[in-house]
Design a protein that fits this description.
The complex is a heterodimer of chains A (145) and B (473). Chain A has 145 residues and is an alpha+beta fold. Helices cover 24% and strands 43% of the residues of chain A. Chain B is globular and about 85 Å long. The chains are: A alpha+beta (145), B alpha+beta (473).
Chain lengths: 145, 473
């Protein structure tokens, strides 16, 4: 089991950032790597247990299940059901915390998963930077005031 | 229950921020509102359960206990045990999180507590703004300075009134001196007002061998910090001290920070310089050496003198019945106006019979005696059974050994500096509170320029003055 942790500061109020992040079907809007997404079986995107099925810009398909969603804590978590990444037991969490100084947002995104030992370092780097940090960078532009 | 939450982003790696915050006694180094702080019983500042005892720069005093500390989660939780603020059930948590994007630190500070009804908003603002937000700014500035208190200055020219030898007032001469840059734990201050006390005359004359001439004299002063190498003190802070060794008759002085107290807004520097020594003397005499209770009969000698007037004011406020001795009708009036219910006018130290009359034959529960030898027999006669005779000065000469078995009495010969050595902050705090509440009424009657210190001594020795004397630097 390895853990990847990425955090950033987004120059927008937590409510505004959360409005983007809480939409489990919203990845195409605030990430650079998701081309299109749908929620399976026509479920609402904030129903716990729903599955998002999305296509990456490089063509790969991923299915993820929503595990938790808290409007009170600005936090959600999900697991990977299918992906081309070669990971198992993958659970990720996004959490937002208001920064009262400047009315900004502290954003955290972390994941725990298993993979082949020789791939740990490269995967951690790839997920931490190319997924989480890249997502935050796009999110910053989307919510820019 | 109030909940206060504040958070900020500090532009430094979490390891650097946590290294400071995990030290429960570090706040005096970086928080602009925090004055001197100590960990009780000398315990390590990362020992869970340790208690920090500190003074806020507005004069409030607080004791806080460390409840939890986690190096893994970067969390510190603590509570208030005692405070001069009306806050109850205060528990606060500091948590740091790493901002991987830019190697910065997210700092979350949160607490819950109760305050008297109607003051919730005031305390939300106070804690959130003046404690938490001011702390964010203060720590960021502290780290920006490299964790040092302030930049180093060079040796500065100073003027001082130096006793060139032991002798009369004429031995005091204005000379150039130095105030060295503060070493670790020291502060350099620009002095604005200096207190003049009779002990200065004794030291100048060589009766108390506390200096080796040529050396500046003087026990107390107030001023402004110009450079600090000590936690809890920053340039611009107004401070005062009353301590040995002598050397206060100077324009600038470098001192251990442990000897300084921060002045609350309501105490000006002139008042502080005039009152630190005498006020703290009255404080320990009434609260520490002997605890004066309502209904006690207190006998104060030289009741119109510097300490005498303060003892009368304060003892009366404590509910005691104050009898005093003075040397003239004019001084009797002054003493009476300051809380002395029964001033006894006597030039020959005869007061025991009168004291017994005034107390139905019982005598005084406590005698504050600065007279010494010539009043000894009368003091013994004036003391109540199980009374306390406090000899804090011996103006007429040293006392012979005293036999108190006839009264089951207690005899004390206290020295101020043995009290300030351990209790300086609470002693000064109580003096400042008594000033604020109008219990102590400072009476600065004479002001001289520093270079006029010899004139001040001449007037003091000729008994031409009443009230306090200060030198203005």
């Amino acid at each position: 089991m390895i853990k990847v942790y990425t955090s950033s500061v987004i120059d927008a109020p937590a409510d505004a950032v959360w409005a983007q992040v809480r939409d489990f079907n919203g990845l195409p809007r605030w990430t650079p790597f998701v081309a299109e997404s749908r929620i399976e079986e026509g479920q609402p995107a904030d129903r716990i247990g729903c599955v998002r099925n999305f296509r990456l810009r490089d063509g790969g398909m991923i299915r993820e299940r929503l595990l938790t969603l808290s409007d009170y804590d600005y936090q959600c978590s999900y697991s990977i059901l299918e992906s081309p990444m070669g990971v198992e037991n993958y659970v990720a969490t996004i959490k937002l915390t208001p920064v009262t100084e400047g009315n900004r947002t502290f954003a955290e995104w972390w994941a725990e998963f298993d993979c082949a030992p020789e791939r740990e370092k490269a995967l951690a780097e790839q997920i931490g930077q190319d997924v989480f940090q890249a997502g935050f960078d796009t999110l910053k532009k989307v919510v820019a005031r | 229950m109030i909940r206060v939450r504040r958070s900020a982003v500090i532009d430094a790696p979490i390891e650097r921020v946590w290294a400071v915050l995990r030290d429960f006694n570090s706040h005096s180094a970086w928080h602009p509102a925090v004055g001197p702080s100590t960990i009780e019983r000398g315990e390590p500042a990362d020992q869970v359960g340790c208690v920090r005892d500190f003074t806020l720069k507005d004069g409030n005093q607080i004791r806080e206990q460390l409840l939890a500390l986690s190096d893994r989660d970067h969390v510190s939780t603590y509570c208030i045990l005692d405070a001069t603020l009306p806050m109850r059930n205060y528990v606060a948590t500091v948590q740091l999180k790493r901002v991987t994007d830019g190697d910065r630190t997210f700092w979350h500070w949160e607490s819950t507590f109760d305050v008297p009804r109607g003051r919730e908003r005031e305390f939300e603002q106070l804690v959130g703004g003046q404690v938490y937000e001011a702390g964010f700014t203060g720590l960021a500035a502290f780290l920006g300075r490299g964790g040092r208190q302030s930049p180093a200055l060079s040796v500065t020219d100073v003027q001082g009134m130096v006793a060139m030898s032991f002798g009369g007032p004429e031995v005091l001469q204005l000379r150039r001196l130095e105030a060295l840059p503060p070493r670790s734990g020291e502060v350099r201050l620009r002095q604005t007002a200096i207190g003049v006390n009779y002990i200065d005359v004794y030291i100048r004359a060589g009766l108390y061998r506390m200096i080796e001439p040529p050396a500046p004299i003087g026990m107390e002063a107030a001023g402004v910090v110009v450079e600090s190498n000590a936690p809890g003190f920053s340039p611009g802070d107004r401070v005062a001290y009353a301590c040995s060794p002598p050397g206060a008759y100077v324009t600038m002085r470098t001192l251990p920070a442990a000897q300084l107290v921060l002045l609350p807004d309501h105490v000006d520097e002139e008042t502080a310089a005039a009152l630190m020594l005498k006020g703290m003397t009255a404080e320990y005499l009434l609260y520490r050496l002997h605890r004066v209770r309502p209904g006690d009969t207190v006998l104060v000698h030289a009741a119109a003198g510097g300490v005498g007037l303060l003892l009368c004011q304060w003892a009366q406020a404590l509910g005691a019945r104050v009898i005093g001795t003075v040397s003239s009708d004019a001084k009797a009036e002054l003493a009476r106006a300051n809380g002395c219910e029964h001033p006894i006018v006597t030039r020959s130290y005869i007061f025991a019979e009168k004291t017994k009359q005034l107390t139905g034959g019982r005598g005084a529960d406590v005698i504050y005696d600065g007279l010494g030898r010539d009043a000894a027999q009368e003091n013994l006669a004036a003391l109540a059974t199980r009374g306390h005779w406090v000899s804090y000065g011996q103006a007429t000469g040293a006392l012979d050994p005293v036999n108190l078995s006839a009264k089951s009495g207690t005899f004390s010969q206290p020295v101020l500096f043995h009290y300030t050595a351990d209790y300086l902050q609470p002693m000064a705090g109580r003096v400042f509170a008594a000033l604020r509440d109008g219990i102590l009424k400072p009476d600065v009657r004479r002001r001289y320029p520093l270079a006029g210190a010899a004139d001040a001594h001449r007037d003091l020795e000729a008994r031409r003055t009443t009230g306090q004397i200060v030198l203005l630097a």
